Amino acid sequence: MISQRTIQEVINVAQTAEVLEDYVTLKRRGANMIGLCPFHDEKTPSFSVSPSKNIYKCFGCGKGGNAINFLMEHDQLSYPEAIRTLAKRYNITIEEDNKGDDEAYKEQKKLEESYYIINNFAGDYFKSNLHETTDGKVIAMPYFKERGFLESTIKKFELGFAPDGYKTFTEKAIKNQFKEEYLKELGLVSQKGYDFFRNRVMFTIHNVSGKIIAFAGRTLSTDKKQPKYINSPETPIYNKSKVLYALHLAKTAIRKKDNCYIVEGYTDVISLFQNGVENVVASSGTALTAGQVRLVKRYTDNITFLYDGDAAGVKAALRGMDIVLENDMNVKLVLLPDNEDPDSYMRKVGTTEFESFIEENAKDFIHFKMDLLLEEAGNDPIKKSKVIKDIISSIAKVREPIKRSLYLRQCSQSIDVAEKTLVREVNKLIREDIRQKRLE
After folding, report:
1. Does residue 201 carry a pLDDT above 90?
2. Are 56 and 20 in contact (CB under 8 A)?
3. What count of other Cβ atoms lies within 10 Å of the Cβ of residue 435?
4. Which superfamily does 4-89 belong to?
5. The predicted structure's pLDDT at residue 68
């Protein structure tokens, strides 16, 4: 018997639209996707899929549900078979139910609810320190004000301040009957019993539903030995690879704009959001993960990365972008002018010019990668050969045949290599990928 924990993970991870695209040709219409219903004959599409709600509904025959319901109805699978099929698709390890597993699951959910309550308490503590204490007003608030953050923005993003006391938060939390064990597990208190966040401005991290799941603190100290940022550890309610900063605020704008801007820093998100560019989230300095890509795909198939002009940083980031192509998404990149990040550039030029710059300079990921790497390789045949292999490995990740064919044609023209040679190499990579997946 499959454990409740596994079932819940499948429900959370499985993307209905993604699964249904294996069965139905879907076209985007506004926030939803439509197609011909696979359950009855029709000439006019009445089958609708909502990526944001993660459900489907046919307005002709009335059938609806999520990915699990679809597999059960369409493929005539039992509930456990549908769960196992989706678990395999999304590389989820299946846990079998043991005696008492249901009870253990209930206890886990109870524990998670306790974590949310504690994080809410911590969030209120950090906010009150920022707004109501002398140190908060004199030391921390200027950091936010210097970046032009309005009071309404500071409150919307639940920004705060952790004072420079060893046990200020710890004692307050214990006095409010919170278990020190839980405080340590959440990373709010160190293993030695001291406040983990001290003398830092605080950024509150939420899940897509808006619940507080973690914190990040930026130092206000001039001591260079202090790490600039420290973050909450991973916990049962916080998995960094499955979280995008501010998605709970940005998801509506992402769906409306049909595009998601991805930046690196918290202040980049806040600055853009305050200036009316609300379809933006942050990966918090890490390469985008499959879990994060699936989050974005609920709302749009388009991602635009905004980077400063540091070529080394961009080159490193390129290595992690194939995961976006694998999820059948369209990827563009924008390089901001030298010495500018999204926050500083927005403050410098304002919303209209900022958005115009993005529109004029957004470049398709494959073309961007091709131009950047070929320029570096120059006329060196060994380097150029390595670059070509790198580029076609990315093209091989593109799922749509027509788009893949166009990339290969353009690549052939750019690098002066026969198109049929590139096609042969890409097909070889695709066959190998299919073989590997079958072995899994």
Report:
1. yes
2. yes
3. 10
4. Zinc finger, CHC2-typedomain (3.90.580.10)
5. 95
Q: Rounded to whole angstroms, how far apart are CA atoms 144 and 159?
A: 9
pLDDT in tens, 343-380: 999 999 999 999 999 999 999 999 988 888 888 888 88
The CATH code for residues 112-238 is: 3.90.980.10
Distances (CA, A) of 64 to 55, 60, 74, 420: 7, 11, 11, 44
The CB density around residue 173, as the number of other CB atoms within 10 Å, is 22
Tokens of 245: 């900063």
Tokens 């420290």 belong to residue: 230
Residues of the chain with CATH 3.40.1360.10: 242-361
The one-letter code for the residue type at 215 is F
Structure tokens at 50: 């909502």
For domain 242-361, say whether CATH 3.40.1360.10 is its number: yes
- Quick one: tokens of 116? 């949310």
pLDDT > 90 in the chain, percent: 58
SS (H, E, C) the chain: CECHHHHHHHHHHCCHHHHHCCCCCCEEECCEEEECCCCCCCCCCCEEEECCCCEEEECCCCCEECHHHHHHHHCCCCHHHHHHHHHHHCCCCCCECCCCHHHHHHHHHHHHHHHHHHHHHHHHHHHHHHHHCHHHHHHHHHHHHHCCCCHHHHHHCCCEEECCCCCHHHHHHHHCCCCHHHHHHCCCECCCCCECCCCEEEEEEECCCCCEEEEEEEECCCCCCCCCEEECCCECCECHHHCCECHHHHHHHHHHHCCEEEECCHHHHHHHHHCCCCCEEECCCCCCCHHHHHHHHCCCCEEEEEECCCHHHHHHHHCCCHHHHHCCCEEEEEECCCCCCHHHHHHHHCHHHHHHHHHHHCEEHHHHHHHHHHHHHCCCHHHHHHHHHHHHHHHCCCCCHHHHHHHHHHHHHHHCCCHHHHHHHHHHHHHHHHHHHHHC
CA distance 295 to 243: 8
Interatomic CA distance for residues 74 and 92, integer angstroms: 22
State the pLDDT at residue 227: 92
Q: According to the model, what pLDDT value does residue 176 have?
A: 96
pTM across the whole model: 0.77
